[in-house]
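User: For this week's homework, look closely at the record that follows, marking any run of repeated tokens, and judge whether sequence predicts the tokens.
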Amino acid sequence: MAKAVARILPLVFVASLAATASARAQVPADLRAAMEARDRAFYAVDAAQWERYTAPTFTTVQQDGSFLTRAERLANLKTQTARPYVPRSREQNTQRSDVVIARFFSGGLWVLEVWTRESGAWMVLTSQVTTAKP
């Protein structure tokens, strides 16, 4: 009996870790759609779509340390060239009511975003982008 428990216990532990990681990545379907739409808008340089999911009070700290308001980041976005969409990976989400903190890896960058529901729609309040170490 003790040997059986000793064999099963590690499996239960691994399964619980997988369930915890999966739960962290789970967010409401409407938020998941908003996250993907904003990410796709960013890569497509679709300013109108990006703006739709970005709060009026949005601020960001970019990988070079520059601090930008929504208007400044939007102007910066409009100077960029469209490129292929890169999906999020290593994503972790923590939800507290209508606030979600999302951390993920994309395109060689670590990104931290704070999402909130405003007037029934999900929007990013702030983000910070850091270049990943090789």
Notes: The two ends are 47 Å apart (CA to CA). The longest strand covers residues 121-131. Helices lie at 2-25, 29-44, 47-52, 70-78. The CA atoms of residues 2 and 8 lie 10 Å apart.
